Every structure is written in C-alpha cells, then in structure tokens.
Amino acid sequence: MKPELSAPLIVAVDIGGTFTDVTLQDAVTGQAWTAKTPSTPRDPSEAFVTGVRLALDAAGRRAEETGRVLHGTTVATNLILEGRTAPTALLTTAGFRHVLEIGRADLPRRDNLWAWVKPKRPVPPSLVFEAGGRMASDGSELAPLDEEAVRAAARAAKAAGVAAIAVCFLHAFANPAHERRALAILAEEAPDLALTASVDVFPVVREYERSMATVLNAAVMPAVSTYIARLETRLEQAGIHAPLLLMKSNGGVAGAAAIGRAPAQTALSGPAAGVVGARAVAAAAGVENLITVDIGGTSADICLIAKGEIGLTQTGRVGPWPLPLPMVDMVTIGAGGGSLARIGADGALTVGPQSAGAEPGPACYGRGGTEATVTDAHVVLGHLPPSLLGGRMTLDPALAEAAIARVAQSLDLTLDAAARGILAIADNNMVGAIRVVSVERGHDPRDFTLVPFGGAGPLHGCALAELLGITRVLVPPAPGVLCAQGLLAADLKAEFTRSIAEPLDGADLARIEAAFAALEAEAIAWFALEQVAEADRRTRRVALMRYEEQGHELSIPWTAPEALGAAFAAAHRGLYGFDLPEVAVEIVTLRVEAAGALPAPAPSPPHGGSAAEAMVGRQRILLPGGAVEAPVLDRARLGPGAVFPGPAIVTQLDATTLVGAGWSGEVHPSGALLLTRG
Amino acid sequence: MSHCDPVTLEIIRGAARAAQAEMEALLERTAMSAFIREKKDFYTALFDANGAMAVGSDLPIFGDIVAPVAGRFPIETMREGDLYWYNDCYGSRGAVSHSNDQVFLAPTFHEGKRVGFVMGWAHFSDIGGLRPGSLSPDATDHFQEGIIIPPVRLARDGETNEDLLRTFWRNSRFPTQSQGDTRALMAAVRLGEKRLSEMAGRFGPEVLEDAFRQLLARTEATVRGKLRQIFPIGTTRFADAIDTDGHGNGPFTLRLALTRTEDDRFIFDATGTDDQAPGPVNLLMHPDVPGMALGLYVLQGTTGQVLNAGAPHAIDEVRLREGSLLAPKAPAPLGLRGLTMMRLLAALHGLVAVARNGEAPAAHSAYVVIALRGTAEGKRFLMSDGIGVGYGARPFADGTDAVYFVAQENYPAEFMELTYPVRLRAYGLNRDSGGPGRFRGGCGVIREFEVMADEAMLAVRIDSVKNPPWGVAGGMNGGSGRAVVNPGTERERILAPLSDGTILRKGDVFRIETGGGGGWGHPFDRPADQVLADVLGGFVSLERAARDYGVVVREGTVDEAATAARRMQRPATGLFHRNGYRDAVA
C-alpha cells in the first residue's frame, strides 16, 4: 500500500465524547491539516464524514486523492463499559454452564470481603447453553460433539431473542474441530445472528478468560459491524474509495473486514493509539526509552516503552472483565483533571477515583459543579490560562477558589496549600502506578524520558518527573490530540498464537517448526487479506516461556533452540533480579507477530521564532516559596531551537504545559518541546 | 516529632499502597507453586519502626507479626540487610496459625535509622509433614504438619544463610517449588524494603513515623466509633459450632461475648468456647484477630482507611481460655484451622446481628480445600484445590456466589487438566445452596473430577454440613456441602466431609459440592422477577422457588395468581434460621 501519486492523502479520525478530530496529511509532502467538529453520538459516522469533508476543504483537495482512512473507534469499549452490549448467548462444554458466573471465584484484593458486590455478567446463565463433546488438553477427542445439542441451543437462543452467539469449548486452543463444527451448525440454524468461536478470537488456555473474550466479541459484533458498514457507505458516498483501517488494542491497525470478525480487538484501542503516537513523537526526537502518561478528565493511562518497543500483554482488562487479547501493556488509574478531592467523615483527604466527568465538570467550568477537582487546584495556583480551546471555554477562578476553599477550611490549610496538596496526592497516585509499571518490566524510571499528553498531561509532567527522579520531559507538538498522530504512525499488526506446552530440554523441534509454519501460513493469509505488498511484510517468531510451573510467561524472540535457555534466563534476571538455573524451562505458547509496514508520512517541521517572540503575557503562579509572574508562551509561535527557563506556561489549542521552576524548555527540530532539569 | 499534615498523610498512604502493589506484582509473576501464582495465597504489610502494622492487607486474620521476631532478636540489635523468617504458630502466639504460611520480615532503615518493617506472607504448598500438602485431616499432633521454623535470622547485613534455606527445601516433597517460592518472596520483601526506605527519605523519617502513628490512631478511632454505634452498653452474646474435628469428635461450640462497659471499654470474651479438639481444627487465635476481623467489617464503605493494628486496639481486652478450641495447648494440631476461622468470622457477624436486630450479614460457608496426591507417569503430584463457597446475604445485596476468600482465585479447568492427572467433568453452581431470603445467600459450587492417575489419595475438608450457615432477619439457612465418590453409580459412596486417606483409582469420579451462604430478610419479600431469574439461571429449583419463596414458575414465567395465593400464607420468622426459625443458633 504505497501512497500513489494520485492518492497521497492519509486521513485520521478520532471521535471523542465532545469533538471529532480529523487530521489530514499529504504522505508525500508531509503537509498536514486538521478539522474539528462536534461529535454526533447517535450516529458517530455523521461527524466522521463531516470532519473529513471539512479537512479536505481546508486543504483544498479532492476526496479521490485519499489513499487511506485511519480510525480509532470506542464503540466496542463504550458498549462493554456501559453494559449495553447486544443480547448474546454462550455455547459451552457440558458441565460448565456457570463458567462466566463463577469466573476465577475471586474477590479483588483491594475490595472489602463484606461489601463487595459481584458485577453482573454480560451474559446471564439463562442464556448459556451446554453441548456434549470433549477434547483433551493434548487435542485428542474424548467424546464427539453432540450436534443435536448445538441445534437445540441455536433454536433456544433464537427464541430468547439474542443477536449473537459465542462458542467456547474446553481445550479448543488445542483442537478447534468441535468449535468449527458447532459454528457451521449455528450458521445453518441461525444465519442472521452474529457468530463467534473462541479459536477465532484468541486461542489461549484458561476457559473463563477465553469465554469472556469470546462473549464480549460476539456481544459487540452487531453494533460494530453496523457501524463499520455505515462508515464505509458514507465514505463511498463522499467519493472516498480508500481502504478503512481501524486501530486495535495492540497498537496496530487492521482492515474493516478483519475488525468486523474480531471487534473485541478494538476494546482498548483508544489509549493504544495515544501510546503509538507518543512513540512516534519520541522517535522523531531521538528518544527510545520513554514512559507515557496520558491524563484525561477521569483517568490516566501509563505505559513504559523500552528501546522503542511497545510491550504487549495478554492479561488486560476492560472494566471488570478480563480480555486476554494482545493489547498494549499499560495501567489505568482513576486520576485525571476531573478527579474529585473529598474529605471523609474521619478527616481523611482523598483525590479520585470519583470524577466530576464531562458534566458538570470541574467547578471552574461554571456548569454547576461545586466539588473541588484537580483542574480547580491548577486554576487556583495559576497554572492554567483564563480560557481553553482557543477561547471556546473560559475558566472561572472564583468558582475554583470557592471549591478549593471548602477543602482548605476542613483541613485548616491555606487556599494554596490545599490546592498544592490536591495536586500532590494526584501526582503521587500516578507515580505509584508508574513504579508498578516499571517494576513489572524490570526497569528504573530514572533511565527514561517522560512523555505527558492528553488534555491534562503536560500540566503534570514536570511534577511527576521530579517525584520519579526523571530529568527529561518531552511534550508532543499536539499533546491533546495525540491519538490522531498514533493513527498516522501505526502499522498493520496481527498476532497468531498457539498453545503448545513443550519442555525446552528435549523439545520436539519438528512439532514446534510445524506449528510456527502453520502460524506463518495464517499470517500470509492475513497479509493477503490486508493487501500488504511482499516487500512490506514482516513476521517475527516469539516463544512464550516460563520456568516449569510458573504462572506467567516471558516473550522471548525465537532463536536457535540451544540459545533460548540462556536468553530466557537473562530476561528473567533482568526483569525479576534472579534466575533459577536448576529449574526446567517450558515453552508454553508460540506466537507469530505479523506487521505490514505503512509508509510513515514525512514530518511537518514547526515554524516560529524565539521565546521572546512567542511571549504573549505574564501570569501569576503560586509556588511554594511565593508568587511569581511567569511568562506565558504561545506554542504556535515557538520555533525550533527556542529556549526558555521555568517557571513558564506554554499554551496551545489542545493543552497547557506547566514548565516547573528549575526546568528549562527547548523546542526540538521535530516540533516536540523538551524540558530538562539541571 | 515532626507533624505529618493531612495531604502528606494521604500521599504516604498512597505510596504504601503502591509499594504493596509492586511487591504483589513481583511475587505473583515469579512464584512457582500454583498455590501462590494461580490461587494467589499471599499478602503484604508495612509496619512502623516499633513493629505495629500500619498498612495491612484487607484480610481479617492478622495477628502481631513483628513481636515474635523481636522477642528473639531485640529490635535495636537489627541491622540493615537483615531478613527474618518464621512459620512457628505456637512460637508466635498465633500470629501465624498454620505452618504452611511463611512470614518474611525485613527491618527497614534510612540513613542508619530504623524506620519500619516490611512483611511478605505466602502459603507454601508443601513443607513436609504427614501427607503431601502438609495439611491433613488425619493429623493429631502439630509436629505432623510440616517443618517448624522458629523466628530465625535468615540474612544478616545482606548475607543470606543458605544453609537454613537448604534445610527447609530438603524438608519439602517439592523442593523446586519451595525454592522458587522462597526466592520470589524474598525478592518481594527486598523491593518493599527499598520502597519504605525511599518513603523515609522523601518525607523524612519523623514525618513518616507520625504518618504511621496517625494511620493507626485513625483506624482505631473509626473502628471504636463504629463499634459504639453497633453495640449497646452491656454484653452481647452469640454462639455457633463447627461440626467435627474429623476424628469422631464434635460439634465444638464457639461462645462469644462482647461487653461494652459503662465507661466505653470493649471486652471480647471467648472463654466459654469448648475444649480443644484432638483433630486439626484448633484455631490458635492471636488476641488481635477479633479486632482485625470486626475492623474489616466496620471499615466497609470508608474511603481512605486502612486495616491495621489500630483495629485491635479498639478492643480493650481479649479473654481466651487456654486449652479451648480458640487457644489450644501445644502440640494440638492446627492445620485445618481455616474452617474454624471462617465460622468465627460468621459468629462475629452474629454478635452484630444480635446487637442490631438482624442488620448484619448472614453466615457464610467455610471455604473448601481438597488435596489429591499420588504418582503419575513416575512423577509425584500434589493437587491442592481451594474451592469457592457461598457467602451470606447482606441487608443491601445478595450474598456472593462461588467465592473462596479475599484475593484468592480458583484453578481453571484447562489449567488443571494440563497440570494434574485429572479431568474436570463439571464445574458449576450448586443449585439451592444459597439460603432463601429477600436477599439470597450466595451459592456454593459443584466440582466433579475423574481420576486419571493409577492411584491417588484424597483429603477433603468441608464444614457446616450438620450446622448449615444461618440466615438472619427472616432469611433462611444456606445449603450444606458434601463429597461423593462415583455418584449415581452402584459404587456411590459419601465421604466423611472432613477426612483423609480415601484411595481412588483411575476412572473413579469424585464430586465436591460446597455449601452456600444464609439468606437475609423474608424470602417472600424477594421480587418475583428476581426469583424467576434465579430459577432460569440455575440458582434455585422450581420446587424451592415455590416452597421457600412462594413464587410459582410455569413454562419460564411467573404464575402471578398462584404466587399471590402462596405469598398470602407467610410463615412467622425468628431472628435467625437454621433448620427452622429460632432466636439463637447454638
């Protein structure tokens, strides 16, 4: 998919709760245009196409020049989080009707045993049907599939009015024959329903997690399919015949057809796009070890990228549900601009996870909120300009002060001490999460550059860095709309996996080779589906290995078998500080990672002048040592090489950067703002 | 002493929680035994410089962890890099209450000054003893329950005494697992030590000290205040019994009395409890446990609170009788104290129910553990399977179905079949085991196994069979568990619910059914559509819906007329229910 000269335009569309942002870029010249239009929640495709048209108009280009359309959708995510998925049935192995209901029989470690209420499953047990037939863990058939039971289940599910049926049988990852046959029968009996088998979602061991993934996939399929079909129709009508590619939770994109079959792969694509964008920004600035912090209104997503490699996890969650699909390895905590500062009956001050959300929002928005939020604390301390979004939203400092004053009085603190305290608590919660991410990956955060983004990220970058001992902070050129950057930078990506369970010592190499070959054949079929040219295809073999009887595997790039043991031991030592030379190592899973390179657009360099030329005013900031009049700089007027000392405030359309005292800023030739500390 | 302001206090609480999360992440990812990494039977805590637990886990069973070590190694002689270890139940006065639980404790220093302690705690799957898994219903003597490690100094100045570890590993039937788990736990404690030391550096040792002091005082004040709201002046009593000790003895009755004096002191008295048991159901209860357990109960719904050693301080005096089930004399066996502990926790709720006329959770079943051991393909195996039960209904919600305990997870069927010589034939909810009520008690589970090894020995541990978990405020008792071999065949036999030594052969099937939780409120007050959903979902049978809930279901819908007629005949109730309504359960 090389950019044809006749179709050099790449379009990236990011649909947020309030606005739909469109970025249009000419892949040949690197020139870019953006457009913003109000989102249309009832039919998001409307704003999608409106935004694309606006961008084309702004660029003065024709629809036919579009070479590809990239999109990150939150349709699946929102359906799952809001419990609005389609009525769905699950077909399971006889004897396991309550697989979803029981789950892992656990109660979260941080919840109170006596207060916890189990979340309602997306499929009630009355819609779970059993079918006889059994595979063993080695893939041999113990009992044939009870086809009549499958037909009966299809009829019963239809009678119950479901829109989708998921199939997940025990040990299907070892032998999918029963699932395949059941799917064929269901297609005969219920051709109008969305159908999904676990082997097509993700064939990994652990039946509850796999069943949940399959169920969620089936349950979002009708809505996602409808949505994609509508998008494609509208694009056609607008004269855009370019392929539509959608962001996945793994940080790659895939074609609409592939997503239609496995829509659960998009469930965490929003934060993933931001991470991919942050990596692209960092790469352009020559940074390959980074920790990204994406701070929005209610939550913060944190991800560690070492040597330019975005880690994947198969133990991610969406809301209360496990979703064992490859997704960007990050943690999310309830800390954002709207996080509420509250004082308990016992006098304890907490910040988050409750949030003022978009409505009413922080008190300073003047939309009826009265409780103190993180954003109000920033306003009180003078960190934010009087208006945001290029003047579209004004902030009311009196309302922010009134809200913070209530906290201050309860704790017998001054106004600015209370505001500073609220920020310190929020920062501390994020620092805790960053450390957990680091220890899980075996790294010291001080070796990393912090990349804050999201609307509120650049306000916290310097403070977080100081707490972590980090001396470099890189603020992207457009930190508030980095998802679009991520879409433009993403490659086509897919993973193909097989559970295998072989001891490393005396492994059946022929079996492994055959399994890898089969996975690579799947990858080739996928490349063809996505129309990836031979030259742009990349595959990588990975073995997921562990010490015998450990619970978690490490991903080790496949090498000569005799070198694998040493590679595994070294990885284990690096991550956990020890290895166990006398313990046997197992290969648990084989994975082929496939990527289809998409041409990266040429960067568009910033233009502008020195810090003095960019200064648009001064603002009073309350520092612990007293108030200072800090310069306010307009990011759009800061050119490459511009340098300035902190404290300073850098404003731009989509975010505000607070440059702390003791920090200095410099605009990198790539357009990113690099903040460093002495 | 420097004062810690409310903002710094919340930051320190957050940092402590993050340190725990880091330790737990490291432990979970590197431990070797399924008991730790799949079942997640591990906990962490941070202590102040004097050894008071300042930030614990939300677990109701902790005693005074540091005192047993300090008794042997005076705190002031400890040095940076030291690591202490024990599992000695009698030697720790019940801080550890069965020997499988290993406690690793590191004193933590900042610039040469002791600023606190860090604990890592995990259940090791085999530490020797009478039978694989070290816990056996057959035990009659604590020395049969695995190697006993008194409080020892495992490391001095950072130098580990490897000989001690080798001795420990040599006593396990699965030394590799034991070794992996030890390394993981030590690494986690060292990480916590580093974090606590960093906290002292960041905030200053004096501020940290004051923060811990405040966290302890805050928890104590909150717990004491809540207890005052619950308990009137005078003595509140509640008693309940465990069925058996597995050796033909029992029931054993726990008799609890909580007195609030005129001058607002709380005295917990369990001296009326029956004598200790010959079998391993004795609970060597640390005197801190009633306060920790009641603390966890009353802290629900509070934000920003941590369960710590402040909770036991809210109880001014704990009276136990040496030689009783809750204060056994050495060397009485202790291995299966979990079922007594779970019964005790429900009995504490019984005290609340009496004091507040039913505004308390109904009783839960004790979690169930089975062990299957043998040899398959020339390799020794041990399958210790923790199985969920139903928890009690509450005045605001149904009881939880199929949960084991805080943070502990089940083994997936696919994992079991890949790892052990068994096949799982069924794993589902145990219908009708949830006690009927306005809020239904949680259901237990059914887990049915087929043995694939040539021969294996089965131990089962199920309580509350004769004395099912009570319902309250009009709610009815939950169902009982049982263990059956070859159900539905001519060779069917029911196993004693607390037993070991059952020999099973290839092709034998055994089925474990676990008990539910009691119900809360009158079952006739449960909305009919919820009863219908329970029937369609396999929680409640048609017969029991009609009999207990007065809801008649026909062809998948509620027969409104028949239901109204039935619900006219509403039975009278009592405060508690166990095989009939009554004012007290034992």
Automatic annotation (TrEMBL), chain A:
Gene Ontology MF terms: 5-oxoprolinase (ATP-hydrolyzing) activity
One cellular component term from this protein's GO annotations in UniProt: cytosol
Segments traversing the membrane: none
Domain Hydantoinase/oxoprolinase N-terminal, chain residue ranges per copy: 11-189
SUPFAM superfamilies: Actin-like ATPase domain
Residue span(s) of domain Hydantoinase A/oxoprolinase: 210-495
Highest taxon listed in the record's lineage: Bacteria
Entry-linked InterPro entries: ATPase_NBD, Hydant_A_N, Hydantoinase_A, Oxoprolinase-like
Single GO biological process annotation from the record: glutathione metabolic process
PANTHER family per UniProt: 5-OXOPROLINASE RELATED, HYPOTHETICAL 5-OXOPROLINASE (EUROFUNG)-RELATED
Protein's name in the database: Hydantoinase/oxoprolinase family protein
